Amino acid sequence: MTDPRIKLARQQIAKKGQLVTWRQIEDGMPLDPTKPWIVAESEVLEYQVSIVFLPDTRFNFQGSKFHPTTEVPTGFGVALMGAQEFIPKIKDVIIRNGVEMVVRNLRTLSPAGESLLYEMELGE
């Protein structure tokens, strides 16, 4: 049974957030234990998730750059995602409006040991 706090976090993030593609690349496992350098192909997993994107106030304009024709910062960013069926990892990729962003830092809010919310720092 899903914790009601997880359900609430997902509902609020879906309401206020943006639907994006979350991409994970699972490294291939060795095909033969005596030849660990021969591995199976990597598997790419994609999920559709809602994420809330926030301006990162920890970095001022010196830490980000601007898109050439706008005043929209394109460098660092912070995002919030509710708990999902998968476990997010650093170096996973988020595709938002056709732009790939890499998860640079990941913190988990997990009261009583159950993951509830993920806070991510994103980069290009």
Question: Can you describe what's shown?
Answer:
- The protein is mainly beta.
- The protein has one domain (4-123): Beta Barrel (Thrombin, subunit H), CATH 2.40.10.
- The protein is 10% helix and 46% strand.
- It is built from one helix and eight strands; from the N terminus they run αββββββββ.
- The protein has one helix spanning 4-16; strands at residues 18-26, 30-32, 35-39, 43-54, 77-82, 93-96, 99-109, 117-123.
- The strands form two sheets. Strands 1-4-5-8-7-6 form a six-stranded antiparallel barrel. It has a two-stranded antiparallel sheet with strand order 2-3.
Tally the helices: what do you get? Answer: 1
CATH topology: Thrombin, subunit H
Report the β-strand fraction as a percent range: over 45%
Write down the overall geometry.
globular
* String of helices and strands: HEEEEEEEE
Task: Provide the residue-averaged pLDDT.
Answer: 80
Which strands sit side by side, in order, in the main sheet? 1-4-5-8-7-6
Kindly give the count of domains: 1
Q: How helix-rich are the residues, as a percent range?
A: 10-25%
Q: Radius of gyration from the CA trace?
A: 17 Å
Second rung of CATH, namely the architecture? Beta Barrel
**SS-based class:** mainly beta
CATH class: Mainly Beta
β-strand number? 8
